[in-house]
Design brief:
Length: 246
């Protein structure tokens, strides 16, 4: 009986050692795994914004989207660029909504999965939300940004300005789950230069809980025409945006 008790005690000690070793390995390995995941998602977000920048340049140069029929192309939303929503068109001397099944971009510039625009007007890919803003008509010299419609494309009651749409657009990307699917937030505009913020504020950009407004990166609050502010605190969030170099 004494021998049995000794063997049982020895086995329990072994199990405790094994459990301790597993805990140590997990403590080291899981953070590295999470870091690798966030790094991968951030790299994918940067690549997506670069592809979007190229797509916007392409549709603008093609003149496929020209809502004032002046021969100068305009920029588009995800639904328009992916061919899942009709392009805006020139109707009766004014911008108007295209006809479904007739005015879609064909062939599309972006892949069809970028047309999966949610109820917020966002596209979600690899742990990041993406939101495009196009310019509203200037009011008092200030150009506001208009978000994409739920499901994709423009909001019929608030169409982007044709002249501003030849000049301005921007897109933000931020993590679906801050610290879980990504950390940094990103921005790109018509110049094609990518900006980033470390997104470590008290209230970081995080899923639907805290979302970048259209003017987050601009020098003047509420004005897309004011140009991005680089290396200084955002007038909206206070976070600092710097160039992405890789």
């Amino acid at each position: 009986m004494t021998g049995f008790d000794q063997r049982a005690g020895f086995t329990l000690i072994e199990l405790m050692i094994v459990v301790a070793i597993i805990a140590i390995i997990a403590g080291v390995g899981i953070p590295k795994l999470m870091s690798a995941r966030t790094n991968s998602n951030e790299a994918a977000a940067i690549a997506t914004l670069r592809a979007l920048s190229s797509s916007q340049a392409q549709i603008q140069a093609s003149g496929a989207l020209d809502t004032d029929a002046d021969g100068a192309g305009e920029f588009g939303y995800f639904g328009e660029l992916s061919g899942t929503q009709p392009l805006r068109i020139h109707v009766g001397a004014a911008p108007g909504m295209g006809t479904p099944g007739v005015d879609e971009l064909d062939p599309s510039i972006l892949a069809a999965h970028f047309g999966s625009v949610d109820a917020n007007g966002w596209v979600t890919r690899s742990g990041y939300h993406f939101a495009i803003f196009l310019p509203a008509p200037a009011a008092g010299g200030v150009v506001a940004g208009l978000p994409e419609n739920a499901g994709g494309g423009a909001v019929a009651a608030a169409l982007p300005d044709p002249n501003g749409g030849e000049t301005y657009w921007c897109c933000y990307a931020w993590p679906v789950d801050h610290q879980g699917t990504g950390v940094r937030a990103f921005f790109v505009d018509e110049e094609g230069d990518l900006l980033q913020c470390q997104n470590r504020a008290v209230a970081p950009f995080d899923g639907a809980a805290h979302v970048p407004t259209f003017d987050e990166c601009y020098a003047v609050a509420g004005d897309m025409a004011s140009g991005p502010v680089v290396g200084s605190a955002s007038v909206v969030s206070g976070q600092t945006w710097t160039p992405v170099h890789h």
